[in-house]
Design brief:
The chain is an alpha+beta fold. Helices cover 20% and strands 26% of the residues. The protein has eleven helices and 23 strands. The chain has helices at 2-17, 20-25, 54-58, 118-123, 130-152, 192-197, 324-331, 367-380, 391-401, 419-424, 441-444; strands at 61-63, 69-78, 98-106, 108-117, 166-170, 182-190, 206-208, 219-222, 228-231, 242-245, 255-259, 268-274, 282-287, 291-294, 303-304, 343-346, 386-389, 435-438, 453-459, 468-471, 486-498, 505-518, 525-528. Strands 6, 7, 10, 12, 13 and 15 form a six-stranded antiparallel β-sheet that branches. It has a six-stranded mixed β-sheet with strand order 16-23-20-17-19-18, sandwiched between helices. The longest helix has 23 residues, at 130-152. It starts with a helix and ends in a 6-residue tail after the last strand.
Length: 534
């Protein structure tokens, strides 16, 4: 210690002789700016993303028995010739006739892949286990995408070529298009994935494009193993061009209204507008109904679309299974239903730019929901178990059922055994319709006509604006040998793979093999092409 002290003292004397001490003294004191600070980092990374999977959680799962598809056969109708039961003395009745149908649902493989480099693992020491982070984020990504495909996946329904738009010109809707302007208008029908992965319209009926927004179209994906897959399932084929020239009337406040015939399987429509045809057309916006108002000058705030990617129907994704919407649209025959099909109600286009919204019936109800409930009871003696909606339709239903506050319809439920809650109970704003009374549900439950059945109305994260879906999980009568009306059938349930290390990183994959299966498509339904009331 004495040698160290002597050495240190001699060093200070040498530094002072050279003037170094004087320079150091000029920076006397320590502040935060000296950077001699701790780094307050909370251990482990926070997961700030949502994993909302209501259908994955509530749909039952059944294990399959190999093969490339699951197959089943069903007797769909009995006594189809409507034979009377009366028989004459000593004689027999005529033979009855039945209807049978064979079903097939092909298994699809889904999965997500990721990796962790050696350097990332080493650098995270003392902070987080990045391998665990990798597993969790990879599985979460798979669950999020699975939920979306269970609701809206499409492998069987071709949207085809969208119909040629019908155009009209007026000066009463606040437009800014000059007189004597020629517009070339196209329309493209979008699948749920095409809407979800492209420019979102949010919770409104219409979306106006801004610079940088483009449609999400088919592409070739390079996979982790070097293979490639063509990813499609986003849009149908672009329509033929429709042309209109605004009137020469000295008015520069024109609006052009456009509409097309609703397309089976479509949940939204992309509109392209240009002063020229073909590649000169610009992406104008998206509507959740089959009509739109074009209110401003062509090219204002838009981005040129890759029209070449719209020249063919790429609405089917061969790598995915059909979701609820495709099961419903595939079972239904046009609007309404068939004797064995799902319920499907496409609202009329109405006034372009306005559309047809849900309507109140003047008795705290919604006409379109009442019509659907009546259909399910009249045709099949059943009641749906749940109504899935977009956030916008939840607001629309609430505003129709509770007009001007609806104070006379408000009921408060207080637990008489919870004294604390009774004391704290108060009136809260922001009423919402969380369930809907099915008047025909009472008959289904064998309770006569004195009461009904409350059907939950649930916002689904992947339900497109302008669409409502009815699902049924149980019937009030037995269907022999049908364990679940709708289920996910797996050839192999969730499994993970750790691949051999061939470079300085670990690679992983999480996969599942299965298909969404509906034994009773007649128990499903939808209402679509709904315009917002707000």
């Amino acid at each position: 210690m004495s040698e160290l002290t002597d050495t240190t003292i001699q060093s200070l004397r040498d530094a002072r002789a050279k003037g170094s001490i004087t320079n150091l003294l000029k920076a006397a004191g320590i502040t935060v700016a000296s950077n001699l600070t701790s780094y307050d980092l909370e251990a482990t990374a926070k997961n700030l993303f949502t994993v909302l999977t209501p259908l994955l959680k509530e749909l039952p799962t059944e294990k399959g028995k190999g093969g490339d598809a699951t197959h089943w056969k069903a007797v769909t109708a009995v006594n189809t010739t409507k034979q009377s039961i009366g028989v004459s003395e000593g004689n027999r009745n005529a033979f009855i006739s039945i209807t049978t149908k064979a079903y097939t649902a092909a298994y699809k493989e889904v999965g997500m892949d990721s990796f962790v480099t050696f350097a990332a693992d080493e650098a995270a020491e003392g902070f987080d286990d990045v391998k665990d982070v990798n597993y969790y984020t990879m599985l979460s990504s798979l669950l999020i995408e699975e939920e979306a495909e269970i609701f809206g996946g499409n492998t069987s329904i071709a949207l085809g070529t969208c119909g040629t738009p019908t155009l009209s010109d007026n000066t009463a809707d606040g437009g800014t298009i000059p007189e004597t302007t020629t517009l070339k208008v196209y329309c493209v029908a979008l699948t749920p994935d095409g809407l979800r992965k492209g420019p979102s319209i949010g919770d409104n009926t219409y979306y106006k494009a801004v610079t940088g927004d483009v449609l999400f179209m088919s592409y070739t994906r390079t996979n982790a193993d070097g293979s490639t897959d063509v990813i499609a399932g986003f849009n149908g084929q672009i329509s033929a061009v429709a042309s209109i020239t605004t009137d020469t009337d000295g008015n520069n406040a024109h609006t052009v209204s456009a509409s097309v015939t609703p397309v089976v399987g479509a949940v939204a429509y992309a509109w392209l507008v240009g002063p020229t045809t073909g590649a000169g057309a610009l992406f104008y916006g998206i509507s959740s109904v089959a009509n739109i108002k074009i209110q401003d000058a062509v090219g204002a705030g838009t981005t040129a679309a890759n029209n070449a990617g719209l020249a063919s129907d790429l609405s089917q994704d061969d790598l995915i299974y059909d979701g609820l919407l495709s099961l419903i649209n595939g079972a239904a025959q046009g609007d309404g239903d068939t004797s064995s099909g799902a319920y499907r109600n496409v609202l009329a286009n109405g006034t372009p730019g306005t559309g047809t919204p849900l309507t109140g019936n003047g008795a705290a109800g919604v006409n379109e929901i009442e019509t659907a409930f009546k259909h399910f009871w009249t045709r099949y003696r059943l009641s749906p178990d749940k109504i899935w909606v977009n956030a916008q339709q939840m607001l629309d239903i609430t505003n129709l059922v509770l007009p001007s506050g609806g104070s006379s319809l408000v009921r408060f439920n207080v637990d008489p055994h919870d004294a604390t809650r009774m004391i704290q109970a108060g009136v809260a704003g922001g009423l919402v319709i969380g369930s809907y009374l099915n008047k025909f549900g009472a008959a289904i439950q064998g309770q006569g006509n004195t009461t009904g059945r409350l059907i939950p109305i649930v916002i689904h994260p992947n339900c497109p604006p302008g669409t409502m879906v009815f699902t049924t999980y149980k019937l009030p009568y037995p269907l022999p040998k049908v364990p679940n009306l709708i289920q996910f059938k797996t050839r192999r349930d969730y499994y993970g793979l750790d691949y051999p290390v061939v470079s300085r990183k670990w690679t992983y994959g999480t996969y599942r093999s299965g298909v969404l299966q509906s034994y009773a498509p007649f128990s499903l339904g939808l209402i679509t092409n709904i315009a917002s009331t707000n």
